[in-house]
């Protein structure tokens, strides 16, 4: 049972609203809803009655509340003690991200972490999503910024941002408009990773929904820079976030059109491992990184990305 979920349970019970509690804590409501659903599954009871006006405790929820409040108080006291004892932060902190996320966030994250924890030795890593999940579980990294994977059972995750995807073509390709349908994009020869995760998995899913076969011209498991070079050379087209190709598009070295019919987006989250103890100061670290990442978007430094839209909730 996750004690953080108990804290969320207490705060929701006291406020009577999942969405209001999420806003007060600066957490995506859908993430908070998942925490409560997991807690209910662990306890095998329903804790809240949901209605259009908010939530009310069930009988089981009422019985749990007093015990959960005691846990919440103890956790808060423990955090305050940890801050008092370890205000300098961990001796070493490993932060990892997928390539585009690293490109857009690492400089600002490193600057903030160095200012907040000057005695902490920082290690920053770039890797693919499935590697980051494995490394979190193995304890090789402490925090990851990644695109939300299809399987999330082994990681604790808060969704921060939403990013639309773009069809990217060579400069001599027939001129693209601002958007292109998924079906039209998938008819083109594509350059995609071979790994069945991430963009390749997404492209395969889109093709299946359109009852089409992908036309893979080249499989590229290198960096985004290599993929972009292949596209610029006219070898094929690809699918990437706008932030990855903004400079090349502005310089006329690539073309990009947003995928529509349907609109294709990916969610960006901050993640830690469920099976490992938190690093010293983890709460403060996560809050700081979360704020830095959102600031990068609001300041216009992350083209195409928006703060994650709150999921439609019944409370």
UniProtKB/TrEMBL annotation:
> Which PROSITE patterns does the record cross-reference, listed alphabetically?
HTH_LYSR (PS50931)
Keyword terms, alphabetized? DNA-binding, Transcription, Transcription regulation
InterPro entries, sorted: LysR_HTH_N (IPR000847), LysR_subst-bd (IPR005119), WH-like_DNA-bd_sf (IPR036388), WH_DNA-bd_sf (IPR036390)
Which SUPFAM superfamilies does the protein's record reference? Periplasmic binding protein-like II, Winged helix' DNA-binding domain
Q: Quick check: keyword Transcription regulation in the entry?
A: yes
Location of the HTH lysR-type domain: 1-58
Name any one GO molecular function.
Answer: DNA-binding transcription factor activity
- Do the record's keywords include Cell membrane? no
Concerning Pfam families, the annotation shows: HTH_1, LysR_substrate
Q: Into which family does the record put it?
A: Belongs to the LysR transcriptional regulatory family.
Q: What is this protein called?
A: LysR family transcriptional regulator
